[in-house]
Amino acid sequence: MTITDVTDLPRGTRLDRPSVAGVRTTIAPILERLATTAGQREEQRDYAFDDVRRLASAGVAVIEIPVADGGAGGSVRDTVEAVVAIARADSSVAQALRPTFLAAHQIAENPSAPFRAENIERLLSGALFVGTGNERNGGASGSVSTTATRVDGGYLVTGTKFYSTGGLYADYFSTQAATDDGTIIRFTIPVAREGLHRIDDFDAVGQRLTQSGSTRLDSVRVHDHEVFVADDVSRDNPWTGSFAQLYLAAVQAGIAAAALDDAIEFVRDRARPIKHSTAAASIDDPYVRETVGEIAARAQAAAAVVAAAADAVHAVRGLTGAPARTAGAHAAVQVAGAGVIAIESALRSAELLFDVGGGSITDRALGFDRHWRNARTAANHNPRQWKTAVAGAYHLTGEEPPTTGLF
C-alpha cells in the first residue's frame, strides 16, 4: 500500500504559549481513547490518524522547546513522562512519534541545529516528522546508496529507505543521499513532494502500527535551501544519541504500565478464581495479588530508571568542554542501564499478565499478547547485552561508551 493523498503543509493552527501542564491536560482524553481502542486497532491495522493529529495539535512535541522559541520550556523528564504516558495508551503511537520528538529535542539542546527556525514553526503548527537513514544496500551499516544528482538549483534524489517510523502520519521527511563526488547531503522535504512514495510494508511481529515501512524516492526534487552537509567538528558531548535511546526505554516503560492496567482491569472485571483457591473472588486470591504486585513493581522500576536517566541527559545541557564530555558519558551509561531495566521490565510484565487469569485471558479479542510482541520488537533496535557490557566497562575502568548513537 502506497500513501499519496496528503497535503504539502502541516495541519493545525500555531500554538500560542503552550505549557507543560496545559499539554498534559489536553492530551489526557486523547490517550484514554487510544488506550481503549489499541487492541482492536492493531487487530484491524487501523491507524489512529485523527488522534495522532490531535496529539500534535495539542503541542505534545513542543514540551521541551524553550519558551523563548514559543515552546513549553519543559525538561527532558517532562518530555519522557509524556512519552511513557503515550506508550501506556498505545506503544505503536509513541514509537511513530519518535522522529518528531527527536527533531524537537535537537532543537531544544542545539541552538545551531540545521533548519532550527523553520522546524520550530513547523512543530508549533502541529507538523509531524519522519526520518531515516536505513538502507538495505548490502554495504556496511550506515553506508548510503541513495543518489543525489546535481541539477539547476538542487538535486534529483533516487533510492529506497527502510524503517521510516511514523511515515504515514508525517508532514516532513528527512534523510540523506550521496552526490556524484561522494558527499553526503542531508535534507528535509514535505512528504507530498512529487516522486516520494511512503509504502505501508512494515510486517514485524509487534509494533505493527508504528508505520515503520519503506520510503521510495523516484527522482525527487530537493532544492538547495532544503539541504545541508554535516560538518566534521566534534562536539564536546559526542553522545548525541542518548535521547533517542532514552526514548526507546520510555516506550518500554509505557508497555510495562499498560500490562499493569490490563492485569488490574481483567482481575477486577472478568477473572474467576481457580477451583482450589481459598478466595471467593480473584481480587482476593493471594497468588493473583502477588502477580499483580510484581507487575506493578516492574512497571514502577522502569518508570523510575527512565526518569533518572532523563535527568542525567538534561544535566548535560549548557555544559561545554571537559564537563560536557564527562556528563555526556555519564548520561549515556545511565540511559543504557535504563534501557536494560525497562526492556526486561516490559517483557516480564507482559508475560506475568497472563498469570492473573485462566484460559480466557488468552482470548485473541483481548489482544493482551501485543504487549510482549511490542516490547520484544522495540527491544530489537539494538542488543541490550551491549548496553550492560558498556556500562560495566565504564564503572570498572572509566572506559567511555561508543559514540555510535546507540548509547
UniProtKB/TrEMBL annotation:
A molecular function (GO) held by this record is: flavin adenine dinucleotide binding
- Acyl-CoA dehydrogenase C-terminal domain location is 247-382
The record's InterPro entries line, in alphabetical order, gives: Acyl-CoA_DH_C, Acyl-CoA_Oxase/DH_mid-dom_sf, AcylCo_DH-like_C, AcylCoA_DH/ox_N, AcylCoA_DH/ox_N_sf, AcylCoA_DH/oxidase_NM_dom_sf
Where is the Acyl-CoA dehydrogenase/oxidase N-terminal domain positioned along the sequence?
32-126
Keyword presence, Oxidoreductase? yes
Could you tell me which Pfam families the record lists for this protein?
Acyl-CoA_dh_2, Acyl-CoA_dh_N
Keyword S-adenosyl-L-methionine among record annotations: no
Top-level lineage group: Bacteria
Sorted keywords for this record are: Oxidoreductase
UniProt GO BP: L-leucine catabolic process
Q: Which PANTHER family match?
A: ACYL-COA DEHYDROGENASE, ISOVALERYL-COA DEHYDROGENASE, MITOCHONDRIAL-RELATED
Task: Return the protein name.
Answer: Dibenzothiophene desulfurization enzyme C
Its source organism is Gordonia sp. MP11Mi
Q: What is the gene name?
A: soxC_1
